[in-house]
Amino acid sequence: MIKSQSLLFCLLLFICSFAHGATPQVGGLKCEYLINPIGIDAKHPRLTWVLLDDNRGARQTAYQLFVGTDSALVSRGTGDHWQTNKLTSDLNLINYQGKPLQPFTKYYWRVMVWGNNGKSIASHVAVFETGMVDKSNWQGNWISDNKDVNEKAAPYFRHTFSTAKKIASARVYIAVAGLYELYINGQKIGNHRLDPMYTRFDRRNLYVSYDVTSQLQSGQNAIGVLLGNGWYNHQSTAVWYFHKAPWRGRPAFCLDLRVTYTDGSTETITSDTKWKTALSPIIFNSIYTAEHYDARLEQPGWNTANFDDKGWKGVINRSAPSGSVVAQAMQPIRDVESIPAKSMTKLADNVYLFDLGRNISGVSHITVSGEKGTVIRLKHAEKLGKTGYADQSNIDIHYRPTDDKDPFQTDIFILGGKGQESFMPRFNYKGFQYVEVSSDKPVSINKESLTGYFMHSDVEAIGQIGSSNQTINKIWSATNNSYLSNFFGYPTDCPQREKNGWTGDAHIASETGLYNFDGITIYEKWMADHRDEQQPNGVLPSIVPSDGWGYEWGNGPDWTSTIAIIPWNLYLFYGDSKTLADNYDNIKRYVNHIDQLYPSGLTTWGLGDWVPVKSVSPVEFTSTAYYFTDVSILAKAAAMFHNKADEAKYTALALKIKNAFNAKYLNTATGMYDKGYQTELSVPLYWNMVPENMKGKVAANLAGRVKADNYHLDAGILGAKAILGALSDNGYADVAYRIASQETYPSWGWWIINGATSLYENWNIEAKSDLSLNHIMFGEIGAWLYKGIGGIKTDPLNPGFKNVLLEPNFVPGLSHFESSHKGPLGQIVSNWKRDGGVIRYSVTIPANSTASIKLPHVAGKKVYLDGKLIAADQPFKQAAGHYEFEIR
Ligand code: BGC
């Protein structure tokens, strides 16, 4: 539903971009990349807006900002907390610099923008509201039910209070070690799922803020809190030892409900020992495996004021899990899409198989009726065995159950026997397409009884690809499915077997993510997770967050380069250097550590080209390329932050690494790297290690290698990241497209032809290991379609698409291709189609930006714009606006 809305929105924007002459507007106002957020802790929050003006050459020439606590004043053009002058500037990302922001305060803001015609355009009034701002503003205690960490049932907490005065507004601030659902007077608050997002609980905890004004009533009120284990109290046992995490504890929370009355007075109702607790019908919950629910234990009305809680127990005060409790300023996880079952098959008496028709991350919701005490098991799987039953053999391999009470990805629902009953897990999610439902007694069930919910961080879709090749279109959508299936407040490797924040998978997929989704808030939070994990000597674990596992394995630069690559990509896509600045010292410590360990400049630290087809490249080869990339990013960041000494030091270090690498691996006579495998020729090209004068030769060798490999991939994840771009950036887009559109093994298309709706972990769909059906680590193709065919690229010198590079490739085999991306300045469109002997290329460059257009030379053809011949043999600059080129 939400998905189709955002598609509609994209379409509307797309149509709007053709509607010349519409009145210019200023829209898209965001604070910290969120629309009208509440509970912001940032002292200088970032304010952004978009000039919507489809006139050619449209630009912002000046802006003025107004911020204040009085909405009427702000809307009349007075900001009593901050009012800038009219500033001559085209910036649309500004840090708040007014009077110090107070906690618990609503600020109104608007911006006035002047276009290049000198006319001013006023935005609407937007809002941001501060939260705790400082941890000393918390009043509540951290409380828990004092049960053992091995207690399986999830606890309820309740508290009642009365309000005599008239309520003007009310906010809840809740910090949780574990997961929670919050209720006021029986109503669930908000539609977030699996809140708060996973962090290293013993280093940093997140709190969530809600406006609960409408849920409170005068007189008696009840607050209810249900706590789940999440990653805080991991009871399931697997090879990563999360059951031994240093932070592990019985779930706990701290809550402040701050009520403001119409007379201006405030009152804070807090978590303390007046609260009461009891066990809930959730008799087991594991973020990793599943949830078990016994409806016979339900206590109707437990979260309402009139409930009789005499049988409930007292709570204890306990210590906060860490000294740092900060706002969760990010898009939450939601049930983003509901997916009805496509089919239901009866496999045997009381055994039914539901098929959603596509592989997702999330949960299933079931409604059935049956006798009290009937035990229903919902086994979730990505594939079926030969007999048509759910088969988990590809995903349960690292699970180490200690008994049979916690079956993998299998919810257990015990009926209360009161007619139609429903169940959906609250504190777990899974990766699945199929649900095998079995019961120990007959139940009434049909195809409509089960619905799947696709859950993930609810980030806006901002990219669109379409083409004349259906396989390519399906690859793009499968890539997005896997990207989202692995986006849960931190990027993961897979939604079933691990749910681990594997660093390598995430930096490989970050561009794919940023072209397609507005994910900056998730990445910024995840980089803070990195800072929590980094050792004093600079070392990072291979998974973030981590319980300690991953410092000893898999954490070389080919994986943990996230520390540099992700901040850099955020800078390229959003034009925002904050994450780079926040991580600057961390990147430095990281590369310094590698420099100390590997003074030659060559490093063997890493996993290498993971899950390759057949050829295996040296670990030193790929790890050194990532080490070089990190040092180069650091050198560029140093220049950006005017740190001359660092700039000189890391520019020299980058050069040293590159020289050592080329001295060892490059044959300067032949342009061949090492044994000349695909990965060995692609990686240095993609990561800019090839001497300028050798690029042509190396690229030609790569194209030759691919031809010899019959235009099929021979690469693992690091090679697959590099090869398409290495070819298309160096004159071989046609070769890249042949690989990308391949439909036989090994290729992305091979998965699609075999029914994939998500990306797999292994090229070989018959593989005995490493065969999750929902991995994003081969997902670079989702970015390459924008870069290599649509040609929409970031410009490092003018990031945030201030200047767009438009370098399309009219590859043989496609008759049309459409790509669009909504960047921080608006919608960028790059579409081309063949029309007889003519290629029509249409572009939209958003207001306030420009484009450098580089069109491929088409033999015997010339380029026309608005019917006039133009000189297009060299790249040319174009101002904002919509343009139709003809190549004929
Ligand atoms: C994960 C990968 C990860 C790899 C590291 C696997 O188990 O699923 O995606 O990058 O380990 O080697």
Please identify the top-level CATH class of the largest domain.
Mainly Alpha
Strand content: 25-35%
The total of beta strands comes to 47
Shape: globular
Largest sheet: 11 strands, mixed
| Rg (CA only) | 28 Å
**Ions, cofactors and other bound molecules:** beta-D-glucopyranose
Structural class by helix and strand composition: alpha+beta
For this structure, the CATH topology of the largest domain is Glycosyltransferase
Count of discrete structural domains: 5
Report the uncertain regions.
1-20
The residue-averaged pLDDT reads 96
CATH architecture of the largest domain: Alpha/alpha barrel
Assign a percent range to the helix content: 10-25%
User: How far apart, in Å, are the first and last alpha carbons?
Assistant: 43 Å
Number of helices: 16
List the helices and strands and how they pair.
Blueprint: H1 2-16, E1 25-31, E2 38-40, E3 46-52, E4 60-68, H2 71-76, E5 82-83, E6 87-88, E7 93-95, E8 106-115, E9 120-122, E10 126-130, E11 142-144, E12 155-163, E13 167-177, E14 179-184, E15 187-188, E16 205-211, E17 219-228, E18 252-261, E19 266-270, E20 276-279, E21 282-285, E22 291-294, E23 313-314, E24 316-318, E25 325-327, E26 333-340, E27 343-348, E28 351-370, E29 375-381, E30 383-384, E31 390-391, E32 410-414, E33 421-423, E34 430-439, E35 443-444, E36 450-457, E37 463-467, H3 470-485, H4 503-516, H5 520-533, H6 557-560, H7 562-574, H8 578-597, H9 619-640, H10 644-665, E38 666-667, E39 672-673, H11 678-686, H12 695-708, H13 717-728, H14 733-740, H15 748-753, H16 781-790, E40 792-793, E41 803-806, E42 816-823, E43 826-835, E44 838-853, E45 863-865, E46 868-870, E47 876-887
Parallel strand pairs: 2-10, 16-25, 22-32, 41-44
Antiparallel strand pairs: 1-3, 3-7, 4-5, 4-6, 4-8, 8-9, 8-10, 11-24, 12-17, 12-20, 13-16, 13-18, 14-15, 14-17, 18-19, 20-23, 21-22, 26-36, 27-28, 28-33, 28-34, 28-35, 28-36, 29-32, 29-34, 30-31, 37-42, 38-39, 40-41, 42-43, 43-44, 44-47, 45-46, 45-47
Helix pairs in contact: 3-4, 4-7, 4-16, 5-7, 7-8, 7-9, 8-9, 9-10, 11-12, 11-13, 13-14, 13-16
Beta-D-glucopyranose binds at residues 493-494, 498, 502, 504-505, 554, 607, 610, 775, 777.
